[in-house]
Amino acid sequence: MLRRFASNLRAKDASFNAFVSFEDPLNLDNITKGPLNDYTIGVKDNICTSSLPTTCGSAMLRDFTSPFDATVVKLLKRAGAQIVGKTNCDEFGMGSLNIHSIHGPVINPFRVDSRRAAGGSSGGSAAAVAAGLCEVAIGTDTGGSIRLPASYCGVVGFKPSYGLISRYGVVSYADSLDTVGVLAQDVQKVEKVFECVNRRDHHDPTSAEERSRKQARLLALNSIERWNGQSLKGLKIGIPQEYFPSELTSSSNHIISSIRYLLSQLRSLGATIVPVSLPSTKYALSAYYVIASAEGSSCLTRYDGIQYGSRVAPPLGSELTSTSKIYAHTRSRGFGREVRKRVLLGTYALSADAFDNYFLQAQRVRQMVKDDFDHVFSIPNVLYTDSDSASEMKDMEKPEIDGVDVLLHPSAIRIAPRLDEMLDDLRERDILQDYVQDVLTVPASLAGLPALSVPMRFGIREDISNEQDEDWPIGVSIVGQWGTDKLVMDVGKVIE
Ligand code: GLN
């Protein structure tokens, strides 16, 4: 049966373009027995697989197949998952709309005729789940690339705490921000898969230590126990006032009214809702783009056509013979427009003249954003304590009365945009608008916090004959302290 499903996948995907390659159905016969036996899984095409190419949506890696599986892929297979194919994405994860891919844009499956963007960069993963092409999909999230497409496509998208899921075998975009995460139709499936891949990995130097994982888990449990059961009595939810910027309030009234309705429901379940302030939020987007581009420009230097990447040889007989000219030729043809722009931006930010004013300044903002979060959460950040002594743990288990357990805010400032508007005038339109899409997701990325986007399902009409913007899905995000991933997912289960 699975074989038949897999052989039909290509045909089913024709209207979405969510997948870029498909596993040979014959290979799906030897599945290990395990907890994920019922799950078909799509894996984003920037995560290495030995049986399928890993192109990262780039001409540079058009012909690349990894000799090994990424740790996350190994763990999925070990748990009995059936990996059915690789999912489309923006080139090297750089983008918010999945329009920067050599495989073409992904079509949002919510209403195909409407031809809207699926969001990016894990647009293929979100669309594959939304279209029912696979049970679960794995994505990566550097500044919002799981949460934004999840919000646009109406599925659940989870970016775990930085360092919980191994990045070994995941093609780097920006090492200090890259996170592997999970998308599915409901939080329970996300959690089940997360539990199988949430492992320390000595191949990944940024993989979180067992001690920190354990401490944070205990603190989260402590908080969960206060409100466990049907009622949310004892759960304190913070609403960050800076997460309702003018880009959101001026155009998307229905997003705000949906959030209001959700809050009234949570309140009636017993949750305490309090306004909080994260004052550095307004600087987060600029800081993110400086840091991500700087790290991106550095990570991408390996694709020179000699060590890595498809070499594009200069024409025979031309004077382009020196090594640096081979690099230049390869890189200007192998990288797409958006990636070249990021490399230039990042290289500039790291240059001697600009370093202090841009890169260092952005790092300072990053610290301010982290401090803001630590200030509002009742649970302390275990990464900043270097002792595991019993007395310290005991102190940490006592939540500060004033802090909140989780934060809640809209996942995006708008619904999925129309693709023709995004593609037609790629040259002329204000591309900064694409960057603004990430304004609500980047702060949690800068701070490495767990963040879950869950669709707000109410308000979606069944009668779709005359389509309105209000009918399109929009997600709500729950953000927690580092390592409290279970708490975040438990709150998500109440909301979905
Ligand atoms: N849109 C953001 C960027 O282009 C986020 C991408 C991501 O999370 N991979 O950097």
Automatic annotation (TrEMBL):
Gene3D superfamilies, A to Z: Amidase signature (AS) domain
UniProt record, GO biological process: glutaminyl-tRNAGln biosynthesis via transamidation; mitochondrial translation
Enzyme kind, highest EC tier: ligase
Occurrences of domain Amidase (ranges): 32-488
PANTHER family, per database record: GLUTAMYL-TRNA(GLN) AMIDOTRANSFERASE SUBUNIT A, MITOCHONDRIAL, TRANSAMIDASE
Similarity annotation: Belongs to the amidase family. GatA subfamily.
Protein name (Swiss-Prot/TrEMBL): Glutamyl-tRNA(Gln) amidotransferase subunit A, mitochondrial
Upper lineage: Eukaryota, Fungi, Dikarya, Basidiomycota, Agaricomycotina
